[in-house]
């Protein structure tokens, strides 16, 4: 006999009627009758007797129903144990980044992961943004997404992806026709950034600070859409990840300008605690994150 036969017998007994069993098993009446005849043929005896328009278990049927419960319960138990072994059935992952641009892609990836691993709760800890490494050491988060590696034996870094930063300008800005800009080009510019401190701003860290150049004016503006509206009005310039800017360039007076002759590339890493023993589902999440990002952007 097959598992489907055991499920059929269990459903007929527990639902109390053929009609309800049909609904529970999502079968047609003819399919249910055919499966029941198959089970009785293989068993060599009747499983049910029809009495006053009701199906009543025979002695053999009662024995089979008892065994069906034991077998099906054991199968359910085993499936649950395998899920726990492979996926880590229940758990929580607290995650944050050091860059607000990561929140452009992170929620959609988390949503897809949750679909595959529905019992793993994923929490974005926004208050840890810009200082994920410290929050990681303080056990406020479990995983940090960072582009700056701080040498610390307590932290392990896994490469996630590489992207390119560009400057966003109005099509009327004199930079719009430039092949690329360098630090000295910023001296008379109004630089719009997402947030302070400046030490956390990529363009400052990698371009302006090494050249000891300060823009004429700096304005922190956390809303990307508001910043882009200011740039469209030629009221400033802003650095942005090329992949994050792409959707805003279509049918728009915005232009992307390369930073330095070779472009401004930056690597992003997953940061985790070196000494902590993470459950298996953390490894599944990290692998999922790496695979999904490369798939989305064809990296």
TrEMBL record:
UniProt xrefs under Pfam families: HTH_1, LysR_substrate
Keyword vocabulary terms for this entry: DNA-binding, Transcription, Transcription regulation
Keyword Electron transport: no
Domain of life: Bacteria
Domain HTH lysR-type: 1-58
Coiled coil: none
UniProt xrefs under InterPro entries: LysR_HTH_N (IPR000847), LysR_subst-bd (IPR005119), WH-like_DNA-bd_sf (IPR036388), WH_DNA-bd_sf (IPR036390)
Cleaved signal peptide residues: none
GO molecular function annotation: DNA-binding transcription factor activity; transcription cis-regulatory region binding
Protein family according to the UniProt entry: Belongs to the LysR transcriptional regulatory family.
Protein's name in the database: LysR family transcriptional regulator
